[in-house]
């Protein structure tokens, strides 16, 4: 599978206080660059696997600012170049521009929609604001209702920060009452976030405490299973399967993900765009296969393992954590994630919760001597058995597992 996170513009109609988006915010992607991006992405995906899958994640800036016609054209290019590939489109948006015209299009073209909202109104409207300082909640909540009415696959994305973490109970109730699947991410340190992270960013410990509070609400929720957090599902499945299930923990995340900006420049991921130190080259001039041979792509692919991680029980699941967060916080990818100690606490917590469940095979949980575990054939079989079970459909299986927790 290949994911291209495409930023058709860096422009935005909001000015969230922690936004990592930087660079000039005026330009938009030309139709020629759009075509090169889709053509090259499909060709590279096919070279990896004839009948593989490509995810196009539309991102930014605010991706909906480039207008509906841009996406109608994108669909035409996808149809022209996909051949035997399957593809999926995800609109990652602040939600403010969604109306029924867009919803008709999302339904027609089977888009998934991810809307950013940091919780309930009184916390969201502190950070997710426009240039006049006005909060975005009312507008975004209306968009969420519309997307739900159209039954478009929807998730919401929350950035955990000092403003919303004290209100996680209220936020969980809101998500559950509104039946919103969600994702949670901690702040990264670039763009406008550099100025605000000291004030509203979380320490690794605070991140873990917030994450765990939400996880436990979800885990013990009497209506568990009614909503899903992809980060909870991925990390739980990772712990149970003994290997990473998301890009944060993947050993070589840059093998399967690239991000293309409005000028056609390609980077390892959305949060490393538009850092000139990480540009692979331009999609208008080179194929992705060639770009993957660039010095920067090779550097990203050959991230060294931090010595601390080599000794860590969770190495197979976490692999040093997010490459971009290592870079943004410490100036190098060859070290571990800024949130390392929080991640460790999170994986330990998940293990504890998994051990409360009666009917799953727990032999696979990494024992203290994880090195031996990797050598032991019996345990490896168990790991792969669980992994297969989970990778078939992580979501459903984790929900089933959570169901089992209440037996
Ligand atoms: C950069 S925005 C671009 C797409 C769109 N404008 C939106 O807000 O969803 C993508 C996601 O990154 C999140 N984000 C922005 N700044 C961040 C930061 N410093 N750390 C972590 N996530 C951040 C946003 O909240 C949003 O969920
Ligand atoms: S997080 Fe999204 S909506 Fe907010 S300023 Fe950044 S790009 Fe705009
Ligand atoms: S939890 Fe920390 S030490 Fe362990 S693998 Fe992850 S980043 Fe490395």
Distance between the termini: 36 Å
Which oligomeric form is depicted? single chain
Assign the structural class, choosing from mainly alpha, mainly beta, alpha/beta, alpha+beta, or little secondary structure.
alpha/beta
**Physical arrangement of strands within the biggest beta sheet:** 6-5-4-3-2-1-7-8-9
The ordered string of helix (H) and strand (E) elements is EHEHEHEHHEHEHHHEEEHHHHHHHHH
Structure report:
Helices cover 45% and strands 11% of the residues. It is of the alpha/beta class. The chain has a nine-stranded mixed β-sheet with strand order 6-5-4-3-2-1-7-8-9. Helix 9 packs antiparallel against helix 17.
List the helices and strands and how they pair.
Blueprint: E1 2-6, H1 31-48, E2 53-58, H2 68-81, E3 86-93, H3 100-108, E4 112-116, H4 121-127, H5 137-149, E5 154-160, H6 168-177, E6 181-186, H7 193-200, H8 204-219, H9 230-241, E7 257-260, E8 265-267, E9 281-282, H10 288-291, H11 295-301, H12 307-310, H13 315-318, H14 323-330, H15 340-355, H16 370-375, H17 377-392, H18 394-405
Parallel strand pairs: 1-2, 1-7, 2-3, 3-4, 4-5, 5-6
Antiparallel strand pairs: 7-8, 8-9
Helix pairs in contact: 1-2, 8-15, 9-15, 9-17, 9-18, 17-18
The chain binds S-adenosylmethionine (SAM) and iron/sulfur cluster (2 copies).
